[in-house]
Amino acid sequence: MRTILISGANSGIGLNIAHKELKAGNRISIGLRDLESVKGSVIDPNNWTNEKILLNKYDALDKFSAKKWVENTVSKFGGFDTLINCSGVLSKVPFLYKDGDEEEILNTFNINFLAIWHLCRISWKHLSQSNNGRIIVLVSMSGKRSKGDLAAYSSSKFALMSLCQTMKNKGWEENIRVTAICPSWVNTKMAEKISSIEKSKMTQPGDIAEICSTILKLPMQSVPFEIALNCNYEI
What we know:
The protein is of the alpha/beta class. It has one domain (3-229): 3-Layer(aba) Sandwich (Rossmann fold), CATH 3.40.50.720. The protein is built from six helices and seven strands; from the N terminus they run βαββαβαβαβααβ. It has helices at residues 12-23, 63-77, 102-129, 151-171, 189-192, 205-217, and strands at residues 3-7, 27-32, 53-57, 82-85, 133-138, 176-183, 226-229. A seven-stranded parallel sheet has the order 3-2-1-4-5-6-7, with helices on both faces. Strand 4, helix 3 and strand 5 (133-138) form a beta-alpha-beta unit. InterPro entries: NAD(P)-bd_dom_sf, SDR_fam. This is Short-chain dehydrogenase/reductase (SDR) superfamily. One of its GO terms (molecular function) is oxidoreductase activity. It comes from Prochlorococcus marinus subsp. pastoris (strain CCMP1986 / NIES-2087 / MED4).
């Protein structure tokens, strides 16, 4: 049985991962800006035993809330061995940004990169002590290549991919394995804002939940670092 911290679990990919891991018998600790956002959903705590799920107030821009989340999880479950980062924000700020766009650019980096770095950093000791630690980060294909002119978003994801590579290096001898999942179009609310691909032809959130489930079952010597997913052909 694993004890898993999951960010961004109020919808989409994170919600599907949380539900699948609950059904698998694992314990999950979820960080949410709005604790009411999962009410009536498949991970509504009212539908699960108190020993299996913990909701925590978490804002990616509030370092104190991240610290409290980790502390609450350790207090309730005695520790944890897995961190899955699904939170993120879309930005359409282009390379030739307008004066005044700097705030959105910084906000994009703070949420998509620095907040994840901070959460991984303060979780590191607990993940290492588990002797079978896992970090899974939903990076995006935009962290591997840049298409179009989403400069702020893609740059934040390239930075995140670099962080994953560094964590892989550091974690190798510290009982932590890191996996960066890099999908292109996923059928989520974010994709609706920028893609014209039919929803049925996109990667589905449940597909990524299945991939995460497999990763968590693999032995330390067989955990993949990078998983790239394309729902459409790219040159």
